[in-house]
Every structure is written in structure tokens, then in C-alpha cells.
Amino acid sequence: MRLAYAKESIPDGPEGIILESVMEGYAEYYSENLSQNVKRGFYDSALELKTLGQRVLGLRKSPDDHFEIDPATAPLVRRIFEEYATGTPAKTIFTQLNDEGYHTSTGGSFNKNSIRRIVQNEKYIGIYEYKDIRVENAIPAIVDKDLFDRCQRMLVRHKHSPAAHRNIFFLLTTKLFCGHCGQQMVGDSGTSKNGNTYYYYTCKGHRAHKCSKMRVQQDWIEQLDVQLTKDNQLAVFHDYDLSMRTNGTGAFSDWNMADLKKLDIGYGYTADNGQTYPFRGQGVGLMPELGEVLAAFPNRELLIHINHGDVQTGQVLWSYLENMSPERLNQITVYGDENALKYLREQNSDIRVLSIERLKQALLKYELWGWTGYIPEEIKNMELHIPLKYAKLLWGWPHKFVARMNSVNTRVVIVQGNGKWSEGFDTVESLQEIPKGYAGYIWTNRIDKVKQP
């Protein structure tokens, strides 16, 4: 069989082979030359900051082929950035957008990848980029640099956090490690026979059947230690000395928040006395700032510890709390430095605090006059940590006392021992000492041992 082309006559023989080769070469040259001309045209147009035919949600093509803000869709882009920056999962965002009838720039439905592409697109902060061309302030910005950077940090957290794509937030994910084997503790959940869902932190080693550490219930763990930075922000971190866990040195007060975020908070973790450091390199950019935490968990009850702080720390903390609604403020408890707590109560007497000084004053007055039903002012809006052996001496203990405290926004927490904050009910046997029907809180350091199956 022989293939013939009607418009080009290629003779048989050696000369035909040469002619066919020339024609094929010319066709390839034409195609490549056309491709280069198109690319050159694109490059020349990029130098003039033109759109190159790109469709970008929130932006549109101007009459002279430059990007300009699309007033119809730019608010949607800002909404996506704002929601993602607060920790709202991409799935939640795109599900709601699709339910509301919104579409991507190509007319399709939103998904996880489209949300991520949007929050990573530097065009939204005014940067034009094509090959080696990069020009700032070349496009009208839809969001500011601060909001864009917060989204980038959230992207990193979601990437490294096993619980990142759930609707339940696990505040200690990437920061909590098993004391038995050193593996990371990750968010988990389970459903009881009656259909209630409970949330836990589970050791990765336990999941792999290599560790005996039992699950720890989420609600029993989460509290915030805050540290005052050089630029008067509050970092959420337990250790005062940066060298204990990070690759930095000195105190938090020597560092600005922006520089703290460049540190590796997993650098110094070791479970084998320094033989290995399994999380080095995994904690860069994960140092949380209190405002980010409050925004990410707008409905979570939080226990804020002013760790190694003073009255200045209290003043800065008040700047985070002063605009909260009464309902939100009621979910916050603060303890730690007495001067800081005193300052906070001077600003708003409804702030719930855990203060040793106020605790002593309040319980002394209550012990003297509690039989009349009198509730001292000092005991209102408090969190009381009371050793069980002393609590038995209080008027109306346990039921009437707990009910009275609830009526004045005071939380009752019983502890073991002689009154240290962290002496807990840490064995199953110790739970037998708790009065039947007690409706307050208990303190435990070993929820893995005392939790009910």
C-alpha cells in the first residue's frame, strides 16, 4: 500500500526521499517558529502587564487588557481569605459557596484545590508574575499583605496537622507528643453506644500498636500559656526560655512576633534524652499568636495562663479581650500573675480569674457567713481550685455550694492533696472520694487512667 498526497507530488526514488525530508523539516521549522513567536508575543505582553487571557476570580480585563477589580466577585475572594485565615477548613468554605450558588472563574464548582489556589494566588495582593517577570503593585490588590500572610501560615498548619481537615479543631495538634514513646498525639474521635461523639488525642505509636499510651480526651487538656513579645503581642507557648524547645535563644520579650514565627518550635523536642530530635524542621512558622487562636476558636472555652508574666502582660491581654461580647468573655478564664489578674479585674469585674489571693479572701469570708446564704463579692466570676479535704468544710458542700457558685459565674474545681493547682485525681481509686452527684469539675493529670470506658 502506498500513501499519496494530492497537493504535493513526491516522486519515487532517492530524490523523493530528499524532498520529503525537506518538507518535513520545513513543517517542523514553521511550527517551532510559530510557537516562539507566540511565546515572544506573550512575553512582550507580560512586560506590559497585560492579562494574557487569564481568568482570575475577583479580577477582570480592562479595555486596555490589564487586570482590574471585578466588583461583582472581589467581595467573594475577600470572604474566602478571611474565612480561611481564621482556620475555617477548605471543605467548609467550598461546601457553603457551592450551596449558595457561587462558581469559580471557569464556571465550575468550588473544591478543596480551588480554595487553596485562591489563597495562594499573589495576584490578590497586587503581584504580577510571568516566567522571570515579577512586578509588585502591578494589579489592584483585593486583600492586604497581612491577611495573605495569615492564610499562608494556615496553609502550613493544615499541611502538617493530621486533624486539619476536620470540622472539629484540635488546638494542640503538631504541639503535643506522647510521653511514653515520643510520637505525635493527633486528633481523633469516637462514638458511644448512645450516639454521642467524643474527641481525643491519640498517640500515633498507639495507633500502630507500638505504644501503650491510652487516648486522652480533648476537653481535659487544652489550655493556653501566653508569653509577652518585644512588640507587645502574646505568643502561645509554654516555655519561657526559647532554647528549651526551639532553635532560638533568650526570652520571648527579646523577640518580635514576626521573628518568632521564623523559629522551629519542634527543634528541641526529644523523647530519649537528646539521642534523637524527631521533629526538627517540622515546626517552622507554627508559633501561634493569641489573636490567631482566638479567631480560630471563637466558641471554645479557654483557660489562659499568664506564664512568667506581669502587669504589662495583663495590659496586653486586655487589648485582646476588651472588645469581646459578654457571652464570649464568659468563656475565658485567666490565671497566673496576681498583678496581671488584678489589672484585668479592674478593667472588667466579670472576667473569670483563678487567683490564690482572691481565693483565700473569698473562702475565708464564705466560711464565716456562708451559713446565711451570703456570697462574698471576691468569690464572684472566679475559678476555684479547692482541695477536696478542705471543700468538705464549706457551707452547703457539695450541692448547695456548687449551685451558689454557678449563680455568680464561678467554676468549682476540686483537686487532690494540699491545694497545688495541678494535684489531680489520677487513679481510679481516688475517684471514689468524690461525693455522689457532685456537679462541678475535677482536676486530673491522668485522664488516660481515670476516664470511663
For the biggest sheet, the summary is: 5 strands, mixed
User: Distance between the terminal alpha carbons, to the nearest Å?
Assistant: 80 Å
Q: How many beta-strand segments?
A: 15
Question: What overall geometry do the principal axes of the alpha carbons give?
Answer: elongated
Compute the CA-based radius of gyration.
31 Å
Structural class: alpha/beta
Approximate strand percentage: 5-15%
| Helix proportion | 25-40%
Total count of helical runs of at least 4 residues: 15
Poorly predicted runs are: 162-169
Helix-strand string: HEEHHHEEHEEHEEEHHEHHEHEHEHHEEH
Strand order of the largest sheet: 9-8-10-11-12
Chain-averaged pLDDT: 81
Describe the structure concisely.
The chain has helices at about 15-45, 75-85, 90-100, 110-120, 145-160, 205, 255-260, 290-295, 310-320, 325-330, 340-345, 355-370, 390, 400-405, 445-450, and strands at about 60, 65-70, 130, 135, 185-190, 195-205, 215, 225-230, 235, 300-305, 330-335, 350-355, 385, 410-415, 440. The chain is α/β, with parallel strands linked by helices and about 450 residues long.
Defining traits:
five-stranded mixed sheet; 15 strands; 34% helix
